[in-house]
């Protein structure tokens, strides 16, 4: 069974309530339950933290024996060299994910400090971005 770790960064614990016009009104837990039903042959583990160091710890903790990581680093995408280095430090392929199309938003969201270390990037498809990232990892 393939093991995939989903990691959500800061403020993504508020999905469903946070800026629903941008991020939709579906809480992540319900979406994740649907994803697990749709991919019964994949072990899908989930972690969310608002703390940069905890995200780095989860990448270290899973990146040596999972088949892939789906990472929505939230605003740390645009600021964190430490996350870039953590992704580079582990062998597991990491897919950068965003719910919104960051390129259609403020200029500071157009820059990703982590993308260069990622296998690929999916953004702009709402929560379906996570499923598309999963498909990409499973096709590896
Ligand atoms: C986000 C986009 C980021 O710019 C933002 O800081 C987020 C969410 C997204 O999923 O669209 O927190 O990563």
Task: Give structural notes.
The protein has helices at 20-23, 28-38, 52-62, 81-89, 128-138, and strands at 2-8, 42-48, 68-72, 94-98, 120-123. It is an alpha/beta fold and 140 residues long. α3 (52-62) packs parallel to α4. The mean pLDDT is 98.
Q: Give, in order, the helices and strands.
A: EHHEHEHEEH
Termini gap: 14 Å
Strand order, biggest sheet?
A: 2-1-3-4-5
* Overall body shape: globular
Structural class: alpha/beta
The main sheet comes to: 5 strands, parallel
Radius of gyration: 14 Å
Strand content: 15-25%
> What percent of the residues sit in helical stretches (DSSP H or I)?
25-40%
The kinds of small molecule bound in this structure are:
1,3,4-trihydroxy-5-OXO-cyclohexanecarboxylic acid
**Low-confidence runs:** none
In short:
With 140 residues, the chain is of the alpha/beta class.
List the defining traits of the structure above:
20% strand; alpha/beta; binds 1,3,4-trihydroxy-5-OXO-cyclohexanecarboxylic acid; 5 helices; globular; 140 residues
Strand and helix layout:
Layout lengths: L1 E7 L11 H4 L4 H11 L3 E7 L3 H11 L5 E5 L8 H9 L4 E5 L21 E4 L4 H11 L2
Parallel strand pairs: 1-2, 1-3, 3-4, 4-5
Helix pairs in contact: 3-4
The protein binds 1,3,4-trihydroxy-5-OXO-cyclohexanecarboxylic acid.
The site of 1,3,4-trihydroxy-5-OXO-cyclohexanecarboxylic acid has 10 residues, from loops.
């Amino acid at each position: 069974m393939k093991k995939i770790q989903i990691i959500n960064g800061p403020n993504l614990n508020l999905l469903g309530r946070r800026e629903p016009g941008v991020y939709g009104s579906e809480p992540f837990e319900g979406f994740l339950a649907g994803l697990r039903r749709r991919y019964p042959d994949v072990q899908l583990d989930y972690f969310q933290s608002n703390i940069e160091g905890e995200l780095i710890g989860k990448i270290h903790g899973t990146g040596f024996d999972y088949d892939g990581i789906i990472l929505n680093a939230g605003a740390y995408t645009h600021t964190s060299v430490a996350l870039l280095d953590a992704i580079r430090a582990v062998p597991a392929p990491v897919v950068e994910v965003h719910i919104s199309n960051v390129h259609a938003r403020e200029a500071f969201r157009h820059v990703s400090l982590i993308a260069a270390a990622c296998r690929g990037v999916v953004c702009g498809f709402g929560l379906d971005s996570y499923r598309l990232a999963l498909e990409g990892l499973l096709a590896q």
